[in-house]
């Protein structure tokens, strides 16, 4: 088995009487793009929140890069390179696109009060480098022209691209994308998928995608983890899962099976 | 002439101290989005603690009671006042910033203000209760002996210099990566957290820095007037500071200056000297509040970002080295999101 960058073991989490995640375990291999699929209410988004540290599980462990991060707050996990995006675009609306990217880079000199006040030369030089780097990233995503626009003024699709480019700026090792294609035109879906593939190949970023669009999953994901009713139901390639009766019953259904198979 | 000069000096000191209050609030609200609805309590904390550190031990025979009375030299006492105000900011932050956001946080600050007001007013052993402290030692009094206005004008220069330092500090903070993190937290705290910043720490920093700055303004106030009682720091005063920030423009320190000039000096202070209407002694003060309230409503209605809105960040940029830099498909707005852009 290849080196797994993320492992979740026996996660349980209940909200009141609802057992959102019920003893769920799976692992993600380093350098892969893995899809997390399942019907609505399967606990996918909850799982993303557990992995990223927004929720604490009642039981179980999250192991990132060999380290147990279950009790680590979300910002500390992010410092280790475990990042996430949100289901709805959450850009910093009243800041420019460029600033949106500048904020997220960790380890800047001017982040501490002392550094901000007394090492201005140092952080100014650093900011200059980061601006150049951010512009390159924005250029790749076709957002260079909009770099000095307030992020809140962008269209829905453009905001999606800002989300992804912002995540790239933060230099993640594993990026959790919670429905990155939701409410996006087919043309942009194609393009986002292309970007994800490139980031995976060129920068070696591992991805976990929560996604309903199986065409996208088929195109870019090497492995699929299926969740249903808070449990891990199956995993493998989409082709393997298509012949798995349990998965078909829970999620794919007859129509989807034909569509995916075509 | 001498009277006018003294009046102008007072207006200038008021202008400078309000500027300091508004900049302090701007760091909390304009930068980090913290709704502090008890700005004036921090001013009182700074002022009172300055007073009890600089004044001699309370003389029981005079029936004026207060704690400490250490008779420290004024610069040290000034530091003590500022530290006290920052410490209160830290305490409120501990209670309110960890779990609470926006409106709930605002309620905690309001409650804190009411508590402190009641405590300091009703307990006459702390800071002499409702009668407040007076005859507070003022700096520069020993050198300003020739003319009554001499002290005032020395103080104009002093408070002006302090304001300048605060102003430079606030602007550097704004431009720094720390300031950028604060503004990002104002926009969306969870996202900042999920990108590896401890947003609680950054918000706490903004809370304490703001409190310290307001505390500086408080110390200057009592140094200039030489007295302060709870009547001088009612909840209403907080909203004068808020009005100045909202009218002037949040997250823009130049806006803070315009706001404090307009609201605090022109409307709040200048109208204090309009002759009273004998049959209605409260008419002028009430009208003043009506005017300030109206000003806030008008500005939120017609210019929600304030007279001087937050400036758009601009960076010195070097041209792209990328091959797409010229004639990139994204340069055409209608093609901005075409799939061709990634495949070109």
What is the molecular shape of chain A?
globular
Mean pLDDT of chain B comes to 86
Distance between the termini of chain B: 76 Å
Tally the helices of chain B: 12
The CATH topology of the largest domain in chain A = Rossmann fold
Question: What CATH architecture label of chain B applies?
Answer: Orthogonal Bundle
What is the count of distinct domains of chain B?
1
Instruction: State the assembly state of the protein chains.
Output: heterodimer
Number of strands of chain B: 0
CATH class of chain B: Mainly Alpha
CATH architecture of the largest domain in chain A: 3-Layer(aba) Sandwich
Instruction: Give the CATH level 1 class of the largest domain in chain A.
Output: Alpha Beta
Biggest sheet character of chain A: 6 strands, mixed
Q: How would you characterize the largest beta sheet of chain B? A: none
Helix content of chain B: 55-70%
Percent helix range of chain A: 40-55%
Radius of gyration of chain B: 23 Å
Uncertain spans of chain A, ≥5 residues at pLDDT below 50? 254-262
Give the overall average pLDDT of chain A: 89
Description:
- The complex is a heterodimer of chains A (262) and B (344).
- Chain A has 262 residues and is α/β, with parallel strands linked by helices.
- Chain A has 2 domains: 4-91 and 172-261, P-loop containing nucleotide triphosphate hydrolases (Rossmann fold, 3-Layer(aba) Sandwich), CATH 3.40.50; 92-153, no CATH class.
- Chain A has 10 helices and 10 strands.
- In chain A, the strands form 2 sheets. Chain A has a 6-stranded mixed β-sheet, sandwiched between helices.
- In chain A, strand 1 (4-15) and strand 2 form a beta hairpin.
- In chain A, helix 3 (97-104) packs parallel to helix 6 (156-169) and helix 5 packs across helix 6.
- Chain B has 344 residues and is mostly helical.
- Chain B has a single domain (2-336), classed as ABC transporter involved in vitamin B12 uptake, BtuC (Orthogonal Bundle), CATH 1.10.3470.
- In chain B, 63% of the residues lie in helices and 0% in strands.
- Chain B is built from 12 helices and no strands.
- In chain B, helix 2 packs antiparallel against helix 3, helix 3 packs antiparallel against helix 8 (199-225) and helix 6 (177-187) packs across helix 8 (199-225).
- The radius of gyration of chain B is 23 Å and the shape is globular.
- At the A-B interface, helix 2, helix 3, helix 4, helix 5 and helix 6 of A face helix 5, helix 6, helix 7, helix 8 and helix 12 of B.
């Amino acid at each position: 088995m290849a080196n797994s960058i993320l492992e979740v073991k026996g996660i349980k989490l209940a909200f009141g009487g609802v057992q959102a995640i019920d003893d769920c375990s799976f692992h993600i291999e380093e350098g892969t793009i893995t899809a997390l699929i399942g019907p609505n209410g399967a606990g996918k988004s909850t799982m993303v929140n557990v992995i990223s540290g927004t929720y604490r599980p009642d039981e179980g462990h999250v192991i990132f890069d060999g380290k147990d991060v279950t009790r680590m707050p979300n910002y500390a996990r992010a410092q280790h390179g475990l990042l996430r995006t949100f289901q709805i675009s959450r850009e910093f609306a009243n800041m420019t696109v460029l600033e949106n990217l500048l904020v997220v880079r960790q380890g800047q000199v001017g982040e501490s009060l002392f550094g901000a006040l007394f090492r201005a030369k140092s952080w100014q030089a650093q900011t200059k480098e980061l601006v150049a780097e951010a512009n390159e990233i924005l250029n790749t995503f076709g957002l260079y022209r909009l770099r000095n626009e307030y992020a809140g003024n962008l269209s829905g699709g453009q905001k999606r691209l800002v989300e992804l480019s912002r995540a790239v700026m933060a230099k993640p090792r594993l990026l959790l994308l919670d429905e990155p294609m939701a409410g996006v035109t087919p043309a942009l879906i194609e393009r986002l998928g292309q970007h994800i593939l490139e980031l995976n190949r060129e920068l070696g970023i591992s991805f976990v995608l929560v996604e309903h669009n199986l065409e996208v999953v088929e195109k870019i994901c090497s492995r699929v983890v299926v969740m249903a009713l808070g449990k891990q139901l199956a995993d493998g390639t989409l082709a393997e899962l298509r012949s798995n009766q349990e998965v078909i019953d829970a999620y794919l259904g007859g129509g989807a099976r034909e569509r995916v198979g075509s | 002439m001498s009277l006018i000069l003294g009046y102008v000096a007072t207006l200038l000191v008021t202008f400078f101290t309000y500027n300091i209050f508004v900049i302090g609030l701007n760091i909390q609200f304009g930068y980090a989005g913290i709704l502090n609805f008890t700005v004036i309590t921090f001013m009182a904390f700074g002022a009172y603690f300055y007073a009890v550190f600089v004044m001699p031990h309370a003389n029981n025979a005079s029936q004026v009671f207060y704690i400490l009375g250490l008779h420290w030299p004024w610069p040290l006492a000034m530091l003590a006042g500022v530290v006290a105000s920052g410490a209160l900011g830290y305490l409120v932050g501990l209670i309110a910033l960890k779990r609470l956001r926006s409106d709930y946080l605002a309620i905690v600050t309001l409650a804190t203000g009411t508590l402190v007001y009641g405590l300091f007013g009703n307990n006459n052993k702390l800071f002499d209760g409702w009668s407040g402290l007076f005859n507070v030692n003022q700096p520069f009094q020993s050198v300003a002996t020739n003319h009554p206005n001499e002290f005032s004008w020395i103080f104009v220069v002093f408070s002006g210099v302090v304001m300048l330092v605060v102003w430079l500090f606030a602007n550097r903070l704004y431009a720094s990566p720390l300031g950028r993190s604060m503004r990002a937290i104002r926009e969306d705290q969870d996202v900042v957290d999920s990108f590896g910043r401890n947003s609680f720490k950054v918000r706490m920093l903004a809370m304490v820095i703001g409190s310290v700055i307001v505390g500086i303004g408080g110390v200057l106030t009592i140094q200039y007037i030489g007295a302060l009682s709870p009547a001088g720091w009612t909840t209403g005063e907080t909203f004068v500071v808020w009005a100045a920030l909202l009218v002037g423009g949040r997250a823009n320190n130049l806006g803070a200056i315009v706001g404090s000039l307009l609201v605090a000096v022109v409307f709040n202070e200048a109208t204090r000297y309009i002759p009273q209407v004998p049959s209605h002694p409260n008419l002028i003060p009430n009208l003043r509040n009506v005017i300030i309230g109206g000003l806030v409503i008008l500005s939120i209605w017609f210019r929600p970002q304030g007279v001087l809105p937050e400036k758009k960040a601009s960076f010195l940029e070097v041209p792209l080295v990328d091959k797409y830099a010229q004639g990139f498909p994204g340069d055409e707005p209608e093609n901005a999101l075409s799939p061709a852009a990634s495949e070109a």
